[in-house]
Amino acid sequence: MSRQVLTAVATILSLSLTNGLVADDEFEEPPISYSSSTPANCISELQSKIDSGEVNLKYDDHFGYLPEVLSSLDVPIESQMFVFSKTSLQLRRISPTTPRAVYFNENVYIGFCQDGDVLEVSASDPNLGTVFYSMRQEQQDRPQFRRHTDACMVCHSSSRTEGVPGHLVRSVFVDTDGTPILSSGSRVVDHTTPFEHRWGGWYVTGTHGSQQHLGNLTIDGRDVPEPLDNSAGQNVSKLADRFDVSKYLSPHSDIVALMVLEHQALTQNRLTKANFATRQALAHEKMLNEMLENPPNKRLDSTTRRIQNAGDELVEALLFVDEAKLKEPIAGTSEFNRVFPEAGAHDKAGRSLRDFDLKTRLFQYPCSYLIYSDAFNGLPAETKSYVWQRLWNILSGTDQSDRFAHLSVADRKAILEILRATVRDLPDVWTADAKVEPRVNVAAN
Predict the structure, then answer these.
(1) Mean pLDDT along residues 254-273
(2) Is 370 inside a domain boundary?
(3) Hey, which residues does 124 pair with through a beta bridge?
């Protein structure tokens, strides 16, 4: 048996058994019925256009369908990042000299390997969370996105993804072949992760001052040395001395794109969790009301608690609670920091939730742009009502709990104004005049 196959088996067994990450199949039952339900997302929409002949994807001899798929889905090339750990479907194609390129927007993620058999795709679906696909990298009259509901779920439906079919960004030590050193552990990365623990197994281009990270690092042998010296991996502007960048659409693995990816993955998983929890709670409530001969619409306390708990976790992700602070400014190497904000909704003052800060935090206005997404708009009415009320309470200053102390009066006022100007059909409370109350600090007696 080849080393690559043994590595794949060891990785799956380690994730499934050692860390107790066996996928929860509750979402396979009604009302979610994940595998048997028909997806409705940007990939299913594109496939319909391909099938009807409305879209004709051109094949490239080196990149296959990658350029056409990115263009059709409005995924910017500037979002490109490189991952060289053997932690995905096509691990045999991945190494530090042949990394996998990942591209994304707020709706979809595309993975490309050199000489790969398929494009790897995951889409955000308002009803089903993350839906996984692949497209064969061979010329066809009408290429097909094939949905996957089995192998992908080993890693992508566990506690690491909020217990729902979700996205997963990992940091892991790897050897010079790209094989994960699982004995040294791995870490799920999001916007709360300390800078020094991010990007193991990834290439990172950009400047970040004296802050240290684990990107651009391979380990000789299978033991991670202590202390670890990754000075050569810091503040890297070019990757051409590490592998042949001409074989990719861009030479960059932009640090800003990586940081946005990490926030987005967490928040999309929280959106899915809130969606599923509400629908499951309402279905359970309906069953109990029938059994107990209650009025059909009787709201149970347990239903309210489940909706509120999931809603609270979503609100915390949307408002960047516990975001790791930047100690020095960040700068990428591609045009991502220009392209990404341009795609946002702006108020009359030109402000957008996509505007970057990159000095002490990721965004200038710490409220997630995913509040405009199909996944947010597709939340059950009960969840959206609760989340909007919580957001109003926090941004208006009514809620001054410590969990949101990172939001200054200026932050709350700006976010409130941007949302009012850019979101349609806000709840009535949002249309009233509001004065943002300053945070009151109560001294201990």
Answers:
(1) 98
(2) yes
(3) 130
Domain that holds residue 418: 263-431
User: What pLDDT does residue 434 have?
Assistant: 58
Indicate whether 281 belongs to any domain.
yes
pLDDT at position 22 is: 37
Flag whether pLDDT at 125 surpasses 80.
Answer: yes
Q: Count structural domains, the chain.
A: 1
Residue 279 inside a domain? The answer is yes
Tokens encoding 15: 């994730």
Q: To 10 degrees, what angle do helices 381-396 and 255-291 make?
A: 120
286 class by beta-carbon count within 10 Å (0-12 exposed, 13-18 middle, 19+ buried): middle
Q: Containing H/E element for 395?
A: helix 381-396
Q: How far is CA 371 from the centre of its chain?
A: 14
Which H helix or E strand runs over 411? helix 409-422
In a domain? residue 363 = yes
Give how far Cα 23 sits from Cα of 229, 271, 272, Å.
36, 18, 15
Mean pLDDT to the nearest integer, 293-322: 96
Placement of tokens 């623990």 in the chain = 197
Residues 255 and 216: beta-carbon distance below 8 Å: no
Kind and range of the H or E run holding 11: helix 3-13
In the numeric block, the tokens 């960047």 are attached to 320
Contacts of the segment 356-361: beta carbons below 8 A, 24+ positions apart: 356/256, 358/256, 358/326, 358/329, 358/330, 358/331, 359/326, 359/329, 359/330, 360/325, 360/326, 361/320, 361/323, 361/325, 361/326
**Which of 5-19, 244-258, 354-368, 403-417 bottoms out in mean pLDDT, i.e. has the lowest?**
5-19
For residues 203 and 205, what is the distance between their CA atoms, to the nearest angstrom?
A: 7
CA-nearest of 12, 265, 262, 317 to 129 is: 265
CB contact at 8 A, 196 and 214 = yes
Give the span between the Cα atoms of 279 and 32, in whole angstroms: 8
Q: Distance between CA 107 and CA 39 in Å, rounded? A: 13
Which positions ≥6 away from 268 have C-beta within 8 Å?
124, 129, 130, 166, 167, 370, 373, 375
Q: How far is CA 41 from the centre of its chain?
A: 16
Q: In this structure, are residues 130 and 270 in contact, taking their beta carbons and an 8 Å threshold?
A: no
Please state, in angstroms and rounded to a whole number, the distance separating the CA atoms of residues 310 and 269.
11
62-101 pLDDT, tens digit per residue, is 999 999 999 999 999 999 999 999 988 899 999 999 999 9
Of all residues in the chain, the percent with pLDDT exceeding 70 is 90
Q: What is the pLDDT of residues 270-296, one digit of tens each?
A: 999 999 999 999 999 999 999 999 999
